[in-house]
Design brief:
The protein is an alpha+beta fold. It has a single domain, classed as YjbQ-like (Jelly Rolls).
Length: 140
């Protein structure tokens, strides 16, 4: 079994859901050496998250943003934590709902994503800044 790990910094993106599959694949060229294995992508932040979903129609990403903004509104007077503005606590809650990592099978040197699946960076802050990922791939 081989284990590979790389870290990358994603450029700052506006609030929303962004397909980052190609950036993840480019960051771990050793995928091609694995016939069968697992790839984990982990985000080192508490106000952004990762998920896997529709990679073709951008309206899906717009609907995700709309849904999460309705489900976790800004300026809720019950929030105690608002150190960095009205999007601060909602960003933490959204990140907790979606999670900090995704796990994808590796088959014949490629991520075994479905035809319409992509890895999303879910940016929950208005100005989240650069985001760091740790990508680990292992297998034979």
């Amino acid at each position: 079994m081989n284990i590979y790990q790389n870290s990358i910094a994603l450029r700052a993106r506006r609030r929303g859901f962004h397909v980052i599959t190609s950036e993840v694949i480019s960051a771990i060229p050793q995928l091609g050496q694995i016939t069968a294995g697992i790839c984990q992508v982990f985000i080192q932040h508490t106000s952004a998250s990762l998920c896997i979903n529709e990679n073709a129609d951008p309206t899906v990403r717009q609907d995700f943003e709309m849904y999460f903004n309705k489900a976790v509104p800004e300026n809720d007077p019950d929030y105690l934590h608002n150190d960095e503005g009205p999007d601060d606590m909602p960003a933490h809650l959204k990140a907790a709902m979606l999670g900090s990592s995704v796990t994808i099978p590796i088959r014949n040197g490629r991520l075994a994503l479905g035809t319409w699946q992509g890895i999303y960076l879910c940016e929950h802050r208005d100005h989240g800044g650069e985001r760091r990922l740790v990508i680990t791939a292992w297998g034979a």
